[in-house]
Design goal:
The protein has 186 residues and is an alpha/beta fold. The protein is 48% helix and 28% strand. It has helices at residues 2-43, 72-86, 104-123, 129-140, and strands at 48-56, 59-66, 94-100, 143-148, 152-158, 163-169, 176-181, 184-185. The chain has a five-stranded mixed beta sheet with strand order 1-2-3-7-8, with helices on one face. It has a three-stranded antiparallel beta sheet with strand order 4-5-6, covered by helices on one side. Helix 2 (72-86) links the parallel strand 2 (59-66) and strand 3. Helix 1 packs antiparallel against helix 2 (72-86) and helix 3 runs antiparallel to helix 4. It is elongated and about 85 Å long. The relative contact order is 0.13. The chain crosses the membrane at residues 6-29.
């Protein structure tokens, strides 16, 4: 009876030690090899003012706030390059949340500008988009900068005090983009 009990406790002890090694190894890998070096590298980018990385189920979620002094397109691609250097396969399961500071005029402009942008996406008439955005900008007393490429539409809106950004996925990129204004989704 004593040897059976000893074998049982030895098996349980080995199981707990194995579990502790696996959980600890995963924690230290994420902390020392992936998350902290990524955050350190991204926060060194001159265009990023705030950055946060989270692992949510099988997707990686980053929350980023860009500075207003840089072009949004260049800043976004610098961020993606940094993510790709850290983990090339991780971009297929990436969610990027663009955090903006709340401002009523900017929020109204960005919310209203989504309709002409999606209309241009569906019809393919991107030449009319600046005219629509200019009239919306004049109504809301803001200025804007629009950048287009094959994958994304980048819109930056500025008023006297603040800047807000919106990125809309245009192509078949697996990256999911979430645009927020304060805590509200745009």
């Amino acid at each position: 009876m004593s040897q059976k009990l000893l074998r049982f406790f030895t098996t349980i002890l080995i199981g707990f030690i194995t579990l502790a090694v696996l959980v600890g190894g995963t924690y230290f890998y994420n902390k020392l090899v992936f998350t902290e070096p990524l955050e350190a590298a991204v926060t060194k980018l001159p265009s990023v003012s705030a950055f946060k990385f989270e692992q949510v189920n099988s997707r990686s979620k980053i929350t980023v706030q860009f500075k207003d002094s840089q072009r949004l397109r260049d800043s976004f691609y610098q961020l993606l390059d940094q993510m790709e250097k850290q983990s090339p396969k991780n971009l297929a399961h990436l969610t990027v949340e663009i955090a903006n500071t709340p401002n009523a005029a900017l929020e109204k402009f960005l919310t209203d500008s989504r309709l002409p942008i999606f209309e241009a996406l569906s019809t393919g008439k991107f030449t009319e988009l600046p005219n629509h955005l200019t009239s919306l900008a004049q109504k809301n007393s803001v200025t804007y900068m629009l950048d287009l490429d094959n994958n994304f539409i980048f819109l930056t809106a500025k008023d006297e005090q603040q800047t807000a950004h919106i990125i809309i996925n245009r192509g078949s990129s697996p990256i999911q983009i979430i645009n927020t204004m304060g805590g509200n989704y745009l």
